[in-house]
Each structure stands twice: as C-alpha cells, then as structure tokens.
Amino acid sequence: MSVTNALQGLSHQARDAKSWPFEQARLLLDRILRLRLTDGERDLAASLIGEGKAAEAVATFPALLKPVVFETGYGPSGLPHLGTFGEVARTTMVRVAFRALTDDVIPTRLIAFSDDMDGMRKIPPNVPNGELLAQDLDKPLTVVRDPFGTHESFGAHNNARLCAFLDGFGFDYEFVSSTDCYRGGRFDQTLLTALARFDAIQKIMLPSLGEERRATYSPFLPVSPKTGKVLQAPTLERHVDRGTIVFRDEDGELTEVPVTGGGVKMQWRPDWAMRWTALEVDYEMSGKDLVDSVRLSNQVCKVLGGTPPAGFNYELFMDENNQKISKTKGNGLTMEEWLRYGAPESLAYYMYQSPRSAKRLYFDVIPKATDEYLQQLDAFNRGRAESNGPAIDNPAWHVHGGAPPAKGSPVSFSLLLNLVSAADASTKEILWGFIRNYIPGATPETEPLLDRLSDFAINYYEDFVKPSKRFREPDAKERAAMADLVARFKALPADADAEAIQNEVFEAGKAAGFEPLRGWFQALYEVLLGQSQGPRFGSFAAIFGLDRTVALIERALAGELVA
Asked: For 155-182, how does the pLDDT look when each residue is reduced to its tens digit (9 = 90+)?
C-alpha cells in the first residue's frame, strides 16, 4: 500500500486524535478554511471534512486545491545537523497528519529553504582552507569559494549536503535557495512592498534593538556592487518610484542599488517575514529561543500584506549536563554519532516525543529511545489486526509517515546489548549464532531490523558499555541465591522458554528474601554483566542459552568475572 493510499479514509480518526501532530494539523486546517473561504463556505467545508467527505469539500470549493505550504529553514554556514533533522521530521509529521485529516485530497508542499544569500560573518570551525574563506568574509554564502573544492561555492557545497541528507532519510521536500529567489525575481514584488512600507517595518523592529544598533539599522542589507559583500549599512535614501535605496559603500561613496534582482538581502527577521509572504507559507515551526523573533516577523509579515503561518515553538535539547546544546561548543550529539549507535527510526521517535519539553540529547538516550520505538511499533502492529483501522496516535504511525512496517524486532536493543556483553560478541556473525538458536530459522534477510540493530548494539557496547563495565563479588545473601538459581536452571529442560526461566529467577529471589525483588535483579546485572541495569533476565538467559547462563553464574561465583 502506498503512503497516499494509507492516508485516505482516516479523517474520522484524525478528527479525534490526541497526538500533537494532529492537534497542529487541525489548527492548520482551521487557518486554511478561514483564509480561503467565506464564513458560510467555511462551515460547510469543515462539516464535510469532519464527516469524511473531504473530496466533496474540495470539489465544492476549488480554493482548497491550492497547495498548503510547509516550510523548514536551513543556514548553510554549517553542515546539516540533528536540529535540521528534527525540524524537517517534525514538520513532516504535521504534514502527514494534515493529509490524513483531509483524506489526502488537499495538496501539500514542503519547502526546505536555504538562507544561502546570507553573508558569511565568521569562518566556520573544522573546515579546510580557512585562509581562502577569510578572503570572502561578508560575501553571500553562494559566492564564498568552496573550501572543499567540490562545488562552485561554499553555500552550494552545504546545500548539496542538505539535499543528500534529506534524501537519505526519504523526506519528501522541495529545495529552495534564497539566492535563487533574490536574484531570480521571486522576491521582487514583496521587496518592493517592503521598500514602500519601510517606516512601518522600522516601527516594529527598532524598539527591539539596543540604542547603538537602532541608530544604523535598516531592514535592507545592500550588496556592494564593488566588493560583492553583504553590508550592514544604514539606508540613507529611499526611492520607491525607482525601487532603489542609497547607502554609503565601504569606500565612502554614496551608492544606489535596486532592492530587486539580488541588489539587497533583508535582515533576517524581516527576511523571514518577507519569505513567508512571497512563498505564501502556511506552516513553519521553530525553536523556543526564537519566540521573540517569530513575534516580530509575524508583525512584519502583516505589514507586507501577508498572513503569518501557523506553527509552534519546540523546546531545545540539552547536553549531558543539562546545558543548552551549541554548535560552537560542540557539546551535543552529531547525526553521525546517533546513526552509529541507533537507527534513524529511533531518532525520529525521539524527535516525536514531547516536542514542547526540554530533553537531554546524549549517547545514553539512544538505547532507551530504540527500545521505546520498538515497543510502540509492536503495539501498533498488534492493534492493527484487532481494530477497524491503524492506531494513528501511536508514535510509530508518525515516525513512518502513516505506513509503519508490519514487522519489528523480536529482540530488544537492551537485550542485544547484554548479549553482546555476556558473549563478548565482537562481530555480528557471533551475535547471529545466538539469535538463530533463540529464533529457529531467523536470518538477516527475514529479520532486517534486528540485523541492523545488531550492528548498532556492537558499536554501542564497544564504545560505551565495555569501557565502563565494573564487575563485583556477590555478598553472602546474593551468593546463596545465585547458587540456588543455578540448581533451578539445571532442573529445567534444555528448551525451557523465557517465561519459565523468568519464573525460576523470581522464585530464587523470593526464597532468598529479596524485598523488593529489584535488588535481586540489580545484583544479577552487577555481578554477571558488570552493570547496574539490564533486560528481562529470563529473555536474556533464553537467547544466551540456559547452559551458558549457568556457566556464567558459576564463573561469577568462582570470582573469575571480577578477576
């Protein structure tokens, strides 16, 4: 089934869905109906869509056939990063929810907008040929020479990386370049409006600036005809009839340039508003740190004759010390790091969770996010067979754009990690030897997600778990309980399943007087695996093998693991 087909016939469920993408989709639909239809038309269209007759609503009101425009922004002074992924992923979730809400009959577009006309104000860290970049400071990023030597400009290089990045995750988007819009005339009419309403824009912007900045601020940044630099220069004259401004160039000479055709670049808040207006953007979300910027840009957008888009402000991620993540500090995870230890699906799930709550973004969140994603996917697939339709509030539905795979992983990520640890499995082939014993007939081809998770588990174990493993000796009470557990395991049949094994673990803990039993399981993990937490022990023993688990406990009782 295609994604499009999967999104049709869901409007009844979408109307009552509680997940945040559907809440956003309903707000967006209200906006679309309010802007495109009269009061009477709006009520009828809303009623039809609510009754699952979105196709009839569109046939009755052709204005609804105009595409709904979603936008995400990218600053190509650096490479795409987790924030880039998060914004596109979350926006895509709202877009898919909107399509489901309207039975996928109202067209939508997602614009990935690159602000590549911006002047390069400082040399980015960690790029080669910094001396080359130093010669191009303040020039548009699409004019700055590419330090990597692969593209016609630094901006083009990073734009290509953005597109490859988004393509790699399968996002459906249209790439739009700021430089192309300015120089190609797409922004011309809105820029001329901004020139005519210069004073109204200044009235909005100046109170938000410090005294010194107010004295020289202009919403227009002229591009010097002599040096090609994007200049922070005050506007000295405005000629609305000619569509030009006058500024003092770096050599002191008064210079007149058109505001159209790439002669200027707008300051970023007015630029944001201008972009919304020119591209008729209906939805864009942004980080909590941009609340004031959104407010100002909304006001400027109205001055320009546009309607500010719908959207919301998401919370920012924190590092391991709950400090705000900064690209300059490099105190957060990179995309490459997450994808070394976790699947893209787990990252999308982490982005889905509570976007209005601040969350830590560090290595230790990856296993938990992975297992929670797997649990949600299993719950979705169980519910899919039992209900009248897909559980569209399930995170897996949003992670997979409305079409989750029908199969997850029969083994959790935490269990794989502990299997790698106990078996000292340095290669995936060793790991699969255990998996085949646990799941007869399983192969990487029949269990593709489990096969990918195996790679991530080995990487995570080698880099994070193994260096921090600390085995300890059991105390007298724990030693007696473990000796009892060995006897219980030896009494079980060799093909005992995980449930039977888990029951014996419980009984051994109870017989030893552990209350609560959490202390018993913690002791097993610390003594046998060298860590304070682990998976369900019965499942671990079943996949590791009952005989090997007995041998592991006996080695621990003999003091060999500590040694």
From this structure: 999 999 999 999 999 999 999 999 999 9
Sign, CA dihedral 60-65-66-70, equals: positive
Q: Is 563 contained in some domain?
A: no
| One domain, residues 340 and 457 | no
Length of the chain: 563
**Beta strand 174-177 pairing with 108-114:** parallel
Residues 6+ apart with CB under 8 A from 238: 195, 198, 244, 245, 246
Buried b (16+ CB within 10 A) or exposed e, 265-285: bbbbbbbbbbbbbbbebbbbb
Torsions phi, psi for 145 (to 5 deg)? -65, 145
Whose CA is closest to 502, among 533, 528, 530, 540? Answer: 540
**Residues 235/237/243/248 CA torsion (nearest 10 deg):** -50
**Distance from C-alpha of 487 to C-alpha of 475, rounded to nearest angstrom:** 18
Query: What is the SS3 string spanning 265-330?
Result: EECHHHHHHHHHHHHCCCECCEEHHHHHHHHHHHHHHHHCCCCCCECCEECCEECCCCCECCCCCC
pLDDT under 70: residue ranges of the chain = 1-6, 320, 325-332, 385, 387-389
Range of the domain at 422: 413-468
Mean pLDDT over each residue of the chain, to the nearest integer: 92
Q: How many helices (H) and strands (E) does the chain have?
A: 27, 12
Is 335:291 a contact under the CB 8 Å cutoff?
A: no
pTM score, whole prediction: 0.90
Strands 264-266 and 359-360 come out as: unpaired
CATH of the domain at 249: 2.30.30
